[in-house]
Each structure stands twice: as C-alpha cells, then as structure tokens.
Specification:
Length: 151
C-alpha cells in the first residue's frame, strides 16, 4: 500500500506535468467565491443591445476530473472581451483574467480538480455534480449554462 506522503508527492508531480502541458491560472487568478448577482441581461440570456456576454454552448458539456487528465471546456457565445478581462465562474470556482478569441466568441478554460476558498484553507476538490458556468465581461454577467462534472 502506498503511503500518504508518497501519494502526495506523486500527485504533485502529476500536477506539475499537467501544468507544463496546458496553460494554467495562477493562485491569484483562481479563487472560490459566490458568483455575483445576475444582471437583468443575464437573467434574460443577455443581448447585444445591453453589451452583456451571452453563452450559447459549452463543449464539452460534461468533464471528467481524474488523475492525469486535463479537463478543458470551450465556452461559445458573444460579447466576451478578447483582451483577457473576462472572469469565468464554474460553480464555486472563479477564474480571472481569461482571454477570449479575437472575435470575442470563444473562451477556453481548464476546469481545476481542486480549488482554494482562501489562503488559509487547503485546496478542496470539485465534487461530481452539475455546476453553472457564467462569464463576467466589462462588469456585465452572462446567462448560466450547466456543466456536468464526473470523477
């Protein structure tokens, strides 16, 4: 049976390897908070007239969080800031300074298997379930689209 310390070292090495192969957010960019209250545009699906971002789909709409996997989702929609000033909410996880493509229609994010709620608490796992995904851009919140997380 593998000791806890060896398992922790092995997990750390796997995370480092995964970080080298895919762009990752820094600790300052990933924090757990409650998503801000939805704006009227977000509750009606957003619109070009209000400038609120609109999510049309997630690809894939289901991710598997397991060892040795990188779970990326592509958020399709309109009104995303191509400069990287987007904030993507995935359930309790907040990913800051996420860029979109030049047209502002696609954002790629890696869904972390663990997240921190504050600097003093150890990382928490993202448990299996369905979580709302929202994009905040230029101070406006998008509609919610659900992503299913499995283990």
């Amino acid at each position: 049976m593998i000791s806890f310390r060896r398992a922790l070292v092995l997990m750390s090495l796997l995370v480092v390897a995964a970080c080298r192969s895919a762009p990752r957010e820094t600790a300052e960019q990933v924090e757990a908070t409650t998503p801000p209250a939805a704006t009227p545009a977000a509750t009606t699906g957003g619109s070009a007239a209000t400038g609120a971002p609109v999510i049309t789909s997630l690809v894939p709409d289901q991710v598997r969080l397991a060892a040795n996997t990188i779970s990326e989702i592509v958020v399709h929609g309109t009104g995303f800031a191509p400069t990287g000033s987007n904030i993507v909410h995935v359930g309790p996880i907040v990913l800051r300074d996420v860029p979109a493509n030049a047209a502002g229609t696609e954002i790629r994010v890696v869904v972390p298997a663990r997240y921190t709620s504050n600097a003093e608490a150890p990382p928490r796992p993202l448990f299996p379930g369905s979580y709302p995904v929202q994009v905040e851009s230029r101070g406006l919140m998008s509609n919610s689209v659900m992503v299913k997380v499995t283990s």
